[in-house]
Design brief:
Elements: H1 4-36, E1 38-41, E2 46-50, H2 54-60, H3 65-94, H4 101-109, H5 116-127, H6 134-141, H7 149-152, H8 154-179, H9 183-191, H10 196-207, H11 209-223, H12 228-233, H13 243-253, H14 257-287
Antiparallel strand pairs: 1-2
Helix pairs in contact: 1-14, 2-14, 3-8, 3-11, 3-13, 5-8, 8-11, 11-14, 13-14
Amino acid sequence: MATQHSRTAARIMMAPAVTLLLGWMLVPLIMTLYFSFKKYLPLRGGDLGWVGFDNYVRFVSSSAFWPSVTATLIIVGGVLLITICFGVLLAILLDQPMWGQGIVRILIIAPFFVMPTVSSLVWKNMFMDPNYGLLSYLWEFFGAEPIQWMSQAALPSIIIIVSWQWLPFATLILLTAIQSLDSEQLEASEMDGASTLRRFWHIILPHLSRAITVVLLIQTIFLLSIFAEIFVTTGGAFGSKTLSYLIFQRVLESQNVGLGSAGGVYAIILANIVAIFLMRIVGKNLDN
């Protein structure tokens, strides 16, 4: 049992790391809050004084605000649906004995380590280009007109690209969960005459519920700040402008740090609302 002396020593040794971590988190947040109440235009007059909540009112009353929130939620929901559904299927497939199983697992997990800008450029130019992309040749092979992916289907294009990046992460977490499943339980259900679908629905899927909620939580936190894929592919056009991209436009393109900081506070509020909602789901699953 730890004594009072050992606990005090542990706190002292952890204090520098905790202080550094808090500073790394709190200093940018405090600066964002500070600038959100000011009219700060670096290239057009600099600091023009306090404006109170004017930046918040202007940002939320902008015609681009609610469409950006909607686009953000659509992308997050679409990516989660694809990665979780296909992640479960791939995890079950990779759990089966096969030749070259280790190589197949490495190939499936590899896309997660590709930089978002690189994968976006590859998808945009090699797959989704309306003239020379592989998908355009596939469409022409079946006698269909090639799709202008970046203009006619901007949001689905981004969802496909981001899903390709995050599918390995979901597959890895779900595969780990499947490998912890008691094989005797599956064998007993098979001996009792349960079909493959029933075994999946009543045994495998409930066992994966905790892993699915963890994937849901982690991916949502990162997907709410999606930016690089949109910047490289559509540039925020054709209804693909997310909240993070709107903040980028306000700060860098419009050179309005105060307005962009107010948007950053809104993004923090949205992320916390979603995180609290998901944490409640995770907590319920972990309690069961």
